[in-house]
Amino acid sequence: MLFGHPWELWFALAVVIVMVYGLARNLAADMITMGCLALVMAASPFSKGKLLPSVEQAVAGFGNSALLTVAVLFVVVAGLVRTGAMTMLTDRKSTRLN
Q1: Can you give the pTM of this predicted structure?
Q2: Which candidate, 30, 27, 59, 28, places its Cα nearest to that of 42?
Q3: Which residues of 71-97 are buried (b: 16+ CB within 10 A; e: fewer)?
Q4: Using CA atoms, how far apart are residues 30 and 39, in angstroms rounded to an integer?
């Protein structure tokens, strides 16, 4: 116990701070979020009080179809941006009606 609180509280707070800092600095969001999830999953077996989620609980949300839909949309938008199609769609000159 550190300052009367279990170590899991301080660990979770540190993970949240790292995640918010990384996302605020516009670092790779997928690497930051998956890295933080991996940290929590790696520390969960050492949690005697079961204050951290188990590995099964941590990845349970990945089976949700809504999450997969959003992930596919990220891939589609990345493809549109890389090919220049998004610029073509949003450029004022190309969308002007004659």
Answers
A1: 0.63
A2: 59
A3: eeeeeeeeeeeeeeeeeeeeeeeeeee
A4: 14
Q: Is the dihedral of CA 15, 36, 43, 67 positive or negative?
A: positive
* Cβ pair 23, 29 in contact under 8 A: yes
Q: Report residue 42 as tokens.
A: 């790696």
Ordered per-residue pLDDT tens for the chain, 98 residues: 667 788 899 999 999 999 999 999 988 888 898 899 999 999 999 888 788 988 888 888 788 888 878 888 988 988 888 998 888 878 766 555 55
Structure tokens of 75? 């891939």
**Which residue has 């204050």 as its token pair?**
51
CA-to-CA distance for 49 and 46, rounded, in angstroms?
Answer: 9
